[in-house]
Amino acid sequence: MPEISTIALPDFAAGAVNLASARLGAKGVAVSDEFFAPLDRMLNDAPAEFDPNLYDDNGKYMDGWESRRKRVPGHDWAIVRLAMPGRIFGFDVDTRFFTGNYPPAGSIEVAYVEDGDPTEATVWTEVVAKSPLGPSAQHFFVNADQDKVWTHLRLHIYPDGGVARLRVYGAAHFDWSKVEAEQEIDLAYVFHGAKSLAWSDAHYGHPDKILGPGRGENMGDGWETKRRRGPGHDWAIIRLGHAGVISRVLIDTHFFKGNYPDTCELLGAYLPEAGDTFSAAEIAASETWSPILPRQKMEMDREQVFAGQSIAAVGPVTHVRLAMHPDGGVMRLRLFGKKA
Predict the structure, then answer these.
(1) Which CATH superfamily is domain 181-339 in?
(2) Among 8, 74, 152, 223, which has the highest number of CB atoms less than 10 A from its own CB?
(3) Does the predicted model carry a pTM greater than 0.90?
């Protein structure tokens, strides 16, 4: 198996969502060439894998996007529709397992298209100039302008080759000014800007998944911890998309039957100045946040809704702590309320 170079994530990835996540809806919409491996494979959320014995009709199976060897002038490119409009903080161009077939260089352009996908009239803005790429490694690039909102990305590789994964770290753009003061809205939805910032364990599934769309496709599409063999319980701290007053809580254990939590509770705090990373002291302090939903008995494979007198009137919150006792899996968390 080829050697892998793994690098710790840079600061711009803290508190960011992957706008190029296939799970969240990112899609390849145009490509110059995908002879050896399709573009959409580059957007898969799971890390790339390598099987030395796996081949398909066109040759070696590679877990990513790969073009054929270019025998004419020019270079290859791919256009990706981001999962949601958003501000971009930085990129990870990962050539993992591409050793003799990686592109020597790459560049990135972005565009904002209000409806549909880019056309010949679309204006592209370069945010990563042509830069060297190496074999089987992650390549991080910071985006200098992190305030503008984009919907599409165009990755250029020079002249050809393969990219295992493309990650686009940023923040979902949602126009909260269009939300009426009395309108009920999900404050914990990823497309509204929510993000998990800290957690006790994510052995089988990341807590970001509980903020995603739909009810989930299978047990792997939720947050699940390993079996707890000692004292304590599992938890996740979530930054809401906007400060708000929570009036209704939905905890969905869809697909979790022999591994759902025994009980769950929800705590909240108003921390408008909090950063995207939590220290050990701040995590410890979260255990004393205001109780929004006291511990409730969970049931398997079911949407459980709590409202009315079940929800404590604690006022506006910006962050919540979902606790599972003692461990287990939750498919979705919905926190309905009004923006503050």
Answers:
(1) Galactose-binding domain-like (2.60.120.260)
(2) 223
(3) yes
